[in-house]
Design a protein that fits this description.
Layout: E1 5-9, E2 15-17, H1 20-23, E3 30-34, E4 40-43, H2 45-56, H3 63-73, E5 77-79, E6 86-88, H4 91-96, E7 102-107, E8 111-115, H5 117-127, H6 130-136
Antiparallel strand pairs: 1-7, 2-6, 3-4, 3-5, 4-8, 7-8
Length: 148
């Protein structure tokens, strides 16, 4: 699983070094897509395949489905990791997420996100608002037990 948070930076060729704990999960390759929150999502081939199948099963006569398909597949890019554990993220994806030199990588279980530090800070501000979180998450079942 992709867990934890890491601060990294692009090298002079705009290659991003993938944390060693994440690299082993990307032995079969990776895909990068635009996230939904002005970030990027890096997925294993199997995780990307699940999203791909779901998007492709949506009715193309539905305008929202077409937009989502364009959002996900139109900018998707297959990443190749070099021997040093670096990946090159395309310029248009970096620009769309406001990525410059420094980035924050955030594990999300089946994938990890790539954030510009300022956008990540805004997310952290939201996540740290205890009063709002109590209301926001009240309907979600976060029980640690499977049976109930």
């Amino acid at each position: 699983m992709f867990l934890g948070r890491y601060c990294h930076s692009f090298d002079d060729r705009f290659r991003l070094t993938v944390p060693s704990r994440y690299r082993e999960l990307l032995n079969d390759g990776a895909y990068v897509i635009r996230g939904l929150d002005r970030n990027l999502m890096v997925l294993t081939p199997s995780a990307f395949e699940v999203i791909y199948q779901r998007v492709m099963s949506m009715n193309i006569t539905d305008p929202a489905a077409r937009l989502l398909r364009r959002r996900i597949l139109g900018d998707a890019f297959q990443l190749e990791m070099d021997k040093a554990g670096r990946v090159l993220i395309p310029q248009d994806l970096r620009d769309g997420a406001d990525l410059e030199t420094e980035v924050v990588l955030v594990g999300q279980g089946d994938y990890f996100e790539v954030w510009a530090p300022a956008h990540w800070q805004a997310q952290e501000t939201q996540m740290n608002d205890a009063e709002t979180n109590a209301q926001r998450f009240s309907m979600l079942d976060l029980s640690t037990r499977r049976d109930g």
